[in-house]
C-alpha cells in the first residue's frame, strides 16, 4: 500500500481528533469579530479558501484567504492563521517573520512540530497525528480544515460518517480511464474543488480543472464532451447537470458532505494513477515542502 493510500484512509479518525482538539485551542484561533486572514501554499491555500468562507458563514467576522506569497502586507488584520504541514515552506516562514515585525498576531496550524514554524509564529496548533510521509497531501489538509470548521461550530459527527462512506462507496463505473476531469463547488466548497483538481494533477498527471459551479457554464463547459468527467462536490445549480450531460460528459453529483466528497476524489486520484501505472508516492517534479534558496527553486 502506498503512503498516500494509507493516509487518506485515516482521515475520519483524524477529523474526530481535530474536532475534539478545537475547544482546547480556542484561545489561539481567531476570535469572533476579529478581522482574519488565513494563508497557505498549494493545498493549504485551498483549505484556507474554504475555511475563510465557513468562518464568514458562521458570522465570526471578515475573513480573507491568500497564498502566503501573495499576502497584501499593506492590509491590517487582527490575526493571521498560517496552514503549513511541513512547517518549513519558505513563503510561509518569510510572511510570519514580516508579520511579527509588524506586530500582527499569528497562529500556525502545523503537522510537524520539529520545524522552524514553531518559533516563527506567535501561537501554534500542532496536528502531529495528521502529519504525513507522502508528498501528496490528504489527511493533514482535511484535518486542518476540520479543526477550523469545528472552531466556528460547523462540524458535526455526520461529516465523519460521510467520510467513512466515501472510503467504501464504489467509485462511478469506468471513471478511472477518463482523461479529463472538472470539479465544481459552491461557497466554501469552491476551495475544495480547486484542491480536488490539484490532487488529480499531482497523483495521476490528469488534465484537471476547477470552477465555481455557475462559472463553469460561462465558458469552461465548452471543453466538456465524451470521455470527460464533471464532478460536483456540492449541490449543483438547477439545470446544470442536464446541460453537462447534454455534452456527452459523465456527470458525477455530490451526495455527501463536500469534505467527504473530496475523500472520494482522493480515491479517484489513486485509481487513475493505478490505471496509468503511476506511483502516487513519487509525483513528478514535486517535493514534500518548498524551500527556496538563492538561485534554486523547489517546486511544491
UniProtKB/TrEMBL annotation:
Residues 26-164 form the SIS domain. InterPro entries: GlmS/AgaS_SIS (IPR035466), GlmS/FrlB_SIS (IPR035490), SIS_dom (IPR001347), SIS_dom_sf (IPR046348). Keywords: Repeat. Pfam families: SIS. It comes from the Bacteria. The keyword Heme does not apply. PANTHER family: GLUCOSAMINE--FRUCTOSE-6-PHOSPHATE AMINOTRANSFERASE, ISOMERIZING (PTHR10937). This is SIS domain-containing protein. The lineage of its organism: Bacteria, Bacillati, Actinomycetota, Actinomycetes, Kitasatosporales.
